[in-house]
Amino acid sequence: xxxxxxxxxxxxxxxxxxxxxxxxxxxxxxxxxxxxxxxxxxxxxxxxxxxxxxxxxxxxxxxxxxxxxxxxxxxxxxxxxxxxxxxxxxxxxxxxxxxxxxxxxxxxxxxxxxxxxxxxxxxxxxxxxxxxxxxxxxxxxxxxxxxxxxxxxxxxxxxxxxxxxxxxxxxxxxxxxxxxxxxxxxxxxxxxxxxxxxxxxxxxxxx
Length: 207
Description:
Blueprint: H1 7-22, H2 27-37, H3 42-53, H4 56-67, H5 72-79, H6 83-103, E1 107-110, E2 115-118, H7 130-144, H8 151-164, H9 178-190, H10 193-201
Antiparallel strand pairs: 1-2
């Protein structure tokens, strides 16, 4: 399996979250803030990439394609480029960011199945260990026929909510959009999947 197969969701999500934090700030201002804060932070990696690795046209593509989440066709029309060219440029940007994030230790690759995980989303006390995840991933695959790239961090988030007994909208940002995770949890609970997951890893399914 191609170990970069799941890179796209990881990078798209992080770029989207980064775009939400800018709120009119310049890249220079954002870089200085992240430089003073944490050199291994995702925002620092993205700001460094946009500041030093990209030209103005590439930054405009990032703004439209990732911050505003326009389709490749819409971005192509705005930037007067072919849709296929736009898609290739997006993939090149994601390739660069995945490499920088790996160097910074922000993501890691499970070589047994080729999945890429966001370290920040897996570093809480209730995170699954590799043995537990192997059991859970088999259960998810049996019930849903596939395991999405962010399934592991989603399960960690669900366990966090259950363990900490917090409302979904108080879920830490490192796990991603809480509404998406909540909707997935409700679906899994409805079809009996969440109960099976809890049983497999030996936790009470009470939330």
